[in-house]
Amino acid sequence: MEKIPMLFAEISYEECFDDDKKAKRECIVVQGNIEVKLKAGEQLPDFISPGKAKFLGKEVYDRFHLYVDRNEMRMERDVIIILPDRRTQIKLYKGDKLLILPVEGYVKTLIAGVGNRVRKSDSFAAVTTKKGEVHYLKPPKDGTVVYIDEFSSRPHYLYYLLPEE
């Protein structure tokens, strides 16, 4: 079974810590170039200033799409995605533009997974038609796959791609 990435989304100080400066839930605190990951019940370090820091709380990974404005295809909050190896992070900032690429067809085969870098010349998915023809889907720009959304009501996928500048 494949491990699922972890998602941390921007929240307020009050949502992350209680009056005693103890974490209510798993959080990442970012202040400048300092990043501290705290588990529930752990104390906020003294060198972190709540007024200057940014707080990100752990969320269910499948809720990633809630933090994307689908009209403008931009991030609505800062998020950090920690990949299953637990060392690799993808940082997305409020206002970052994403490409949303649909994968629809009779039979769908996902080629690129979350965290994979895809180039314009690479296929990220394959679609087989009812006639048996195979079409390979390629992104319009180079980028990194940050999320794959699956719709069960109408079986198809949406790839969320962070384009390279």
Summarize the helix and strand pattern as letters: EHEEEEEEEEEEEEEE
- Strand ordering within the main sheet: 3-2-4-1-7-8
- Proportion of residues in β-strands: 35-45%
In CATH, the topology of the largest domain is named Lipocalin
Distance linking N and C termini: 34 Å
Q: What's the structural domain tally? A: 2
Task: Please tell me about this protein's structure.
The chain folds into two domains: 6-92, Lipocalin (Beta Barrel), CATH 2.40.128; 99-163, Beta Barrel (OB fold (Dihydrolipoamide Acetyltransferase, E2P)), CATH 2.40.50. Helices cover 2% and strands 42% of the residues. Strand 7 and strand 8 form a beta hairpin. The chain starts with 5 loop residues before the first strand and ends with a strand. The longest helix has 4 residues, at 13-16. The chain has a six-stranded antiparallel sheet with strand order 3-2-4-1-7-8. Strands 9-15-14-11 form a four-stranded antiparallel sheet, with no helix packed on it. Strands 10-12-13 form a three-stranded antiparallel sheet, with no helix packed on it. The protein has one helix at 13-16, and strands spanning 6-11, 27-31, 34-38, 54-59, 68-69, 74-75, 79-82, 89-92, 99-103, 107-110, 117-118, 125-128, 134-137, 143-151, 156-163. It is built from one helix and 15 strands. The protein is mainly β.
